[in-house]
Specification:
This protein is about 15% helix and about 40% strand. The chain is built from 3 helices and 6 strands; from the N terminus they run βββββααβα. The chain has a 6-stranded mixed beta barrel with strand order 1-3-4-5-2-6. α2 crosses α3. The longest helix has 10 residues. It is globular and about 40 Å long.
Length: about 140
């Protein structure tokens, strides 16, 4: 399984990205060392969408806080960048793909990242991973 993260990215050209206690959804909590991950610089934080592909070099679940019944699982990850995106892909491109049942990779990304605009790590299908590879 491949993953994607939408988060604040200070330097999109960095060789290593470190993200602490990131929210996970859609299977994102299953991320582990060695997984492929696509890095999106969050437009909410001034980013431009897809910036890099990398390999997870460490993944550690954030312990749940005691006494809180409903908590979104969070994970801290370190990513070694393996490629920089050569073409843009972000919210403005994906927002038109909103027929949730059309099976398109663009629609899966729009649903998982932008239907609920919070930053997060998500699991993505093989079709989405293949689609994203075309941007490198």
């Amino acid at each position: 399984m491949a993953f994607a993260i939408k988060a604040e990215v200070g330097d999109p050209r960095a060789g290593t990205f470190v993200f602490t206690a990131q929210k996970t959804m859609y299977g994102g909590k299953l991320i582990s060392e060695g997984d492929t991950i696509f890095v999106f610089a969050s437009e909410n934080e001034g980013g431009q969408g897809l910036v890099a592909r990398g390999v997870v070099t460490s993944a550690e679940a954030t312990p749940r806080k005691p006494g809180i019944e409903r908590q979104t699982p969070r994970v801290s990850v370190t990513i070694r960048r393996t490629a920089l995106a050569k073409r843009p892909l972000g919210r403005s491109t994906l927002k038109g793909f909103s027929d949730w049942d059309d099976g398109r990779p663009e629609t899966e990304l729009n649903f998982k990242f932008y239907r609920q605009a919070t930053n997060k790590i998500v699991g993505i299908s093989d079709e989405v991973a293949a689609f994203l590879e075309r941007f490198f």
